[in-house]
Amino acid sequence: MSVEDAAVSASGVRVVKLGAHLGARIEGVRLGADLDARTVADIRAALHEHKVIFFRDQHHLTEDGQYEFAELLGTPTTPHPTVTSAGAKSLAIDSQQTRSNVWHTDVTFVDRVPSASILRAVALPAYGGSTTWASTVAAYRSLPAPLRLLAENLRARHTNRYDYAADIEDRPDDKDRTYRREFESTYFETEHPVVEVHPETGERALLLGCFVQEIVGLSSAESRALFRLFQDRVTRLEHTTRWDWSLGDVAIWDNRATQHYAVDDYDGEHRRLTRITLAGAIPVGVDGTPSTVIAGDAAAYASAPLGRAA
Ligand SMILES: O=C(O)CCC(=O)C(=O)O
Ligand SMILES: [Fe+2]
């Protein structure tokens, strides 16, 4: 580590840490299909260590270039299990359709939860519109021992019955309703462990977020109370990092170790980002029990290996 708290790898990748628990800016990399294996390995290592990593000035990237880079880092999924009308490669995160201002881990209503998401800024508002990530590993670690034990023995049901914004929308307009109809067009429901073991790092993390419908075996009041207790650990400000986007920025997050929230503070301004997700293994709890499907078949979305990733 230099005095600036940056680490430079042999491939020239420079990692500038942004916070104690998560977040790093990566310098010296031009993302694309032509990256060498060592650079890709360094990016992957930085992702696992810092949970969310940011690249600036990637103005050259197109949707195809973003996809080709994604193929070097992992196996891209289809854009989404249900929202597929916008294209074959990427999911448009467009303020005219939806605003993800609720804490979530991506696509947890299916069994094969994506391993990572790659998000590229395409159009940005004049003000506002940052995104905040939280470390679900730091959240787990911050729990006192009796609460860790409790969480490790819980499982939760996640569904896509509501879209991202359902909790906070008072009067959804027509566009919101159209998006929600597509989002919910096939019903998915999966039971996940509340504490998952990361397949690559072995770290334990809370697996919660807005798609949780209930904690298995509890009354709805008990479910709500326990969900709040654990979810509040995730969103403690010390466990978060916030990114103010510029055009050309790319963010990549480890979807097994984070939640995120898109801050809706840009009024009617247009904001658009392009997301590609990478397939992930089916989560397992600390006792080795994997997640189980209750409804919906996500095989067409992601060809995840059944069980742990190699
Ligand atoms: O709009 C954003 O910044 C993030 C949206 C989101 O939740 C996602 O891309 O998965
Ligand atoms: Fe998301």
From TrEMBL:
<feature type="domain" description="TauD/TfdA-like">
    <location>
        <begin position="17"/>
        <end position="277"/>
    </location>
</feature>
<dbReference type="InterPro" id="IPR051323">
    <property type="entry name" value="AtsK-like"/>
</dbReference>
<comment type="similarity">
    <text>Belongs to the TfdA dioxygenase family.</text>
</comment>
<keyword id="KW-0408">Iron</keyword>
<dbReference type="InterPro" id="IPR003819">
    <property type="entry name" value="TauD/TfdA-like"/>
</dbReference>
<dbReference type="Pfam" id="PF02668">
    <property type="entry name" value="TauD"/>
</dbReference>
<dbReference type="GO" id="GO:0016706">
    <property type="term" value="F:2-oxoglutarate-dependent dioxygenase activity"/>
</dbReference>
<keyword id="KW-0223">Dioxygenase</keyword>
<dbReference type="GO" id="GO:0005737">
    <property type="term" value="C:cytoplasm"/>
</dbReference>
<keyword id="KW-0560">Oxidoreductase</keyword>
<keyword id="KW-0479">Metal-binding</keyword>
<protein>
    <submittedName>
        <fullName>Taurine dioxygenase</fullName>
    </submittedName>
</protein>
<dbReference type="GO" id="GO:0046872">
    <property type="term" value="F:metal ion binding"/>
</dbReference>
<dbReference type="InterPro" id="IPR042098">
    <property type="entry name" value="TauD-like_sf"/>
</dbReference>
